[in-house]
Amino acid sequence: MTFKKLFHSVLSILFWLSLPAHSAVILQYHHVSETLPAVTSVSAETFTEHLNYLKDHDFNVIPLNDLLTSLQQGQSLPDKTVAITFDDGYNNNYEQAAPILEKFKYPYTIFVNPKLIDEGEAYVMGWDKLRELAKKGALISNHSAQHDYLHHKLANETTQQWQARIKQDILSSQQRIKEEIGHDYKYLAYPYGEFNNQLQSLVKELGFIGIGQHSGAVNKESDFSRLPRFPASGFYSKLDTLITKLNSRAFSIQKLSYLDSVTNENPPQISIQFNMDDFHKSQLACYVSGVGQAKLVWSAADTVVINSPKPLAQGRSRFNCTAPSISHKGSYYWFSQPWVIVD
Length: 343
What we know:
By secondary structure, the chain is an alpha/beta fold. Helix content is 31%, strand content 24%. Residues 1-23 form the signal peptide.
């Protein structure tokens, strides 16, 4: 009987290892600089260290559009697939990051704010530099017109007026990128990584993919109006912790239930219904940023309700949940729920 159990266990592991990979990781950077704010910066030396790790460990670094198209179409991806992205289009991306990436021949995406470029803001690349990088293979995409909080309504603004204003912001930004660069990839990186239910619905209506700044891997079952990325700058640039994230996997999730990512429910609560095929629920651990371990209550065999043991501070916060993979030893499933706590 023991031999039979061992035999079936080995068969199960071999089965999972033989399946094509459907998870991937998207990295997010801002500055490659040693003189700008450390919280959003990574030095050229550390950035090179990141890329060397990807190269030395045979990661499949591909353009963001190839990664997202493959997942949406349910196609298989090689294991350890990664896309590299930058937010805001700072000059140091051109001066520091691009030459390093070219040496490794790695593709990357830059999310830009077209209105800031048109106004000639000195800290961002102009269209000429962006065109030069695009000709070398960089993908240029949408980060809103001028980096506003897109989910915010103006004083006395109705929902319909807000929708019209944000729709104009997104579409006019997309048009400027198309005019100047020729790219028309409908990807929107949310400024500050913030989004709410209404903004997600608008992004879906416009046919865009919404991309956040909360951590986690992505797969074909991910919500394409709120895709996660792993920040790799500042505190998160340490290679020893980044390695775990690079090798992470996306949970197979059937259903997410919560009121809203931007909420006055405090503490907020989320329910997750999993496909429980490659991790043990006893090993699921969730943590609340700035608080500690979250409360977990399994309301069904495949569904967990996650709550904070105490109210969260106003502003941005997260629940981070991980569990070790059964079939891929040393690899963790990773999910993050971002919150913005308001009055």
